Amino acid sequence: MDREIASVMSFDGVDWLERNSRTTEENTNLAIKKLPITKNSVVADVGAGSGFYAFRIAKRVPEGKVYAVEIQDDAIKYLVEKSKSLNLNNVQVLKGSIKSTGLPDSSIDLLIMVDVYHELEFPMEYLQSIKRALKPTGKLLLLEYKAEDPAVEIKAAHKMSVKQVQRELSANGFRMVQQGSFLPLQHFLVFEKQESANIKRK
Questions:
Q1: CATH code for position 50
Q2: Is residue 191 part of a domain?
Q3: Would you say 182 and 34 are in contact if contact means Cβ atoms under 8 Å apart?
Q4: Which residues form the Methyltransferase domain (predicted)?
């Protein structure tokens, strides 16, 4: 839909994902606080990378579960080892593919992709896989660097506008229910399956 699909970031960039300044630069604590989850939610972090979000979310769902989904073998090995070192028994590392999450059908309350959607090689097929994985009331959250803000110093192909995200997701059976503007660098965009939704802006 008139957008360049960005190349997938290599796991060689793990140090950048785990940089000490990330919490402040992106206000990740606020992003995690705003997640629409409860203590028993089942969450999927797709394109989990180093697990920066997955392992923090796991602490918010002590009676639930977090799937850390990755396609890169180096990332999967890292996630498995770190999960063991943190003794987080509610995190399950899962290998997906370029067209599928690999998640069980109707199993997910919240699926998040943090700076990942713009890299999907087959976005249409992947969104259908996400729809299958979500429970009937499940939600999809995209955190994407703001294409509308020139001050966000990220390559253009790795940023997305709200308009472009809405255009692509609405064409694939999703409706936006929250447009969060509270993060310094990223959009916080929550979607539901097309069947039911009421737009909410904050």
A1: 3.40.50.150
A2: yes
A3: yes
A4: 38-152
Q: Are 26 and 186 in contact (CB under 8 A)?
A: yes
pLDDT digits (tens, 9 = 90+) for 11-38: 887 888 899 999 999 999 999 999 999 9
pLDDT tens sequence across 102-133: 999 999 999 999 999 999 999 999 999 999 99
Q: Report how many domains make up the chain.
A: 1
Residue 196 has pLDDT above 50, yes or no: no
pTM for this predicted structure:
0.92
Backbone CA torsion sign across 193, 158, 95, 85:
negative
Question: What distance in Å separates the CA atoms of residue 176 and residue 5, rounded to the nearest whole number?
Answer: 21
Q: Where are the beta strands (DSSP E) in the chain?
A: 42-46, 65-70, 91-95, 108-114, 134-146, 159-160, 174-180, 186-193, 200-201
pLDDT digit string, tens, across residues 172-186? 999 999 999 999 999
Residue 46 inside a domain? The answer is yes
CB burial class (10 A; 0-12, 13-18, 19+) of residue 30? middle
Token pair 């890169």 is at which residue?
72
Is 4 inside any structural domain?
A: no
What is the token pair recorded at 8? 């997938």
